[in-house]
UniProtKB/TrEMBL annotation:
This is SDR family oxidoreductase. Residues 7-187 form the Ketoreductase domain. Keywords: NAD, Oxidoreductase. Belongs to the short-chain dehydrogenases/reductases (SDR) family. Signal peptide: none annotated.
Amino acid sequence: MTPHSNTTALIFGGTQGLGLAIAERLRAEGCTRMVLAARDPDKGAAAAAQLGATFLPCDLADAASVIACVDQAAALMGSVNALCLSAASTDRGSILDTAPEAFDRMFAINTKGPFFAIQRVAQLAKAAQHPASIVTILSMSAHVGQSFLTPYSASKAALSNITKNTANALRHDRIRANGINCGWMDTPGEDAIQRSHHGSTDGWLERAEAAQPFGMLVKPAHVAGLAAYMLGPQSGVMTGSIVDFDQNVSGASPE
């Protein structure tokens, strides 16, 4: 039996980048019942067709939309026993220039939406008395973050706490929750951000990777393997763990 032959997976943000890589890994490991949730219907339809999955439109900034999406996914698959939260906003903002509206939207997408997705999946799993696994995609920025990522960093730090709190609260219901603090990652979304926010030009990725200790940025396929492990039965009783997935070590000082 493949690790995910009994998995019924709901992946928020599963239509591109890391979310899509996680969906592909789950599919390769036997997951045949999968729902991808995201805002872009064109990307969603293409990803779902590629994976033999179902796409549901959903806006993480709208808690009611998130709850309805979980309910619809559970109805389609019979249950949701694996939830992955990979969608996020990475809009820029510092402690000096972030507007209240921008702050509220960042937390709505990165913290509030995931909170209510976790809540609804847990409610359904507990009512049906079946185990479930939850993985939140976090960020190394949750430790501190760069000066231009203040609300983003705070939103991910809050979600990290929600992940651990969930793990503690629901362990006796056999509902597990773990998170991954991702470092600087090579994704289409990062390429767009580098060009739109930082004035980067063609070749920025090669230049950036040449300066990294391992000669590369974090790759989605590598993180996808860990996420699939956390979501599946092979990770056993693992819960409440937040794993730093990066080549830079938090807390280390220059020598």
